[in-house]
């Protein structure tokens, strides 16, 4: 009788242990937090920093920014970098992902004249991180192009490629003895497709349906150039890793049993993600993108496809330029197939097709493009595994926005709980090779076209106080616990 009672008591305990052991991040799994230069540094003209397209856009076309603000001071990390490092340390995470401001290092963007003060600034951060056992994950380019290239068409002009390569080489030489994880370019889709309409000075009046593809083409070549420079000249002595960060917008068929919706959703994923990933993983743009842009161009009576072609040499150069894949994830949508529209002006959105929408039942947050749909994120990871031979993935961003000064950020905690859980499911149940999860963001910062109206931070920043004091939000404790216990509380 007693043994029976014992078994009844012990069995559930044992199976509970088993299940918590299963739902644990692997021992080599790394956590981190992220920021980017223009969004946090400030010091926009300090100590010889040159001007970037975002300085000019936010100054001259501030009407395009929701609160008409700019990143002149932002979080003042140019002065408060040491406190930032201690905040990262307090979280107990392994990685701090931040970006280099190109014009802080090469002020005019195109000459090789290095600004020693800019180098000193990043050296201080990198050294302090390492002193605190935090590994720097450094993004070379997070959207702050030197202004000099703006009048030349920005990334739509291939002239940027050798200059970016030159900047990358400088960065590897200056910091690569300590930086072992590099990201060439952050989210090309956003800079090539989205900003064209948001901030005129970023991509002023470029022909739509053409500029996005030119930009993508050049970005891929620039990424590959930086990858090969690292691979040949630096990897043998520095032994690090390098890749690109793409944002995975997930499109789910509105009706999974309607083959047309399934096709349309897949097409959206190929235009948003495959456009950038496929040349790196599978030699060329996705077939559906090549065919569709060619067909639409034809009916628009454009003699050549609006999608540029890679030469064989270019394909070979771009292919395989990854040591892992950086993924930012924020968006899941449904796609409903639509009838082929009549001849319109060239348009990326028409090329991509389908009607996309959010389920009104999905919980949202202050950023209207972010809904809490962890299964969409999980499906996107499975899609990457299937299409690109299960590469090592670093989630380089994922996060949730509040609209105001929320310290008890239960919405964010719930979001991270759901998405971390989906990460675990993707690893354990789907066999996706996710090795790290980096949250966006360490602290509230300048949210591009939304200025300071959206807050993504684990730490709150008071932007009306000249000292920009930082305060941990409730989610700091939650995140610390995840990192410490490797489980989701
Ligand atoms: C960008 C970040 C941005 C975040 C939240 C990502 O697309 O890389 O710079 O702050 O999304 O919108």
Explain what this protein looks like in three dimensions.
The protein is an alpha/beta fold and 489 residues long. It has one domain: TIM Barrel (Alpha-Beta Barrel). It contains 16 helices and 13 strands. It has helices spanning 2-22, 37-40, 53-60, 77-91, 102-105, 116-131, 160-175, 188-198, 211-238, 259-282, 287-299, 312-318, 348-352, 374-387, 410-428, 474-485, and strands at 30-34, 95-99, 135-141, 181-186, 241-247, 250-253, 325-328, 332-336, 355-357, 393-397, 434-440, 459-461, 470-472. The strands form 3 sheets. The chain has an 8-stranded parallel β-barrel, surrounded by 6 helices. Strand 10, helix 15 and strand 11 (434-440) form a beta-alpha-beta unit. 51% of the residues are buried. The chain binds beta-D-glucopyranose. The site of beta-D-glucopyranose has 12 residues, from loops.
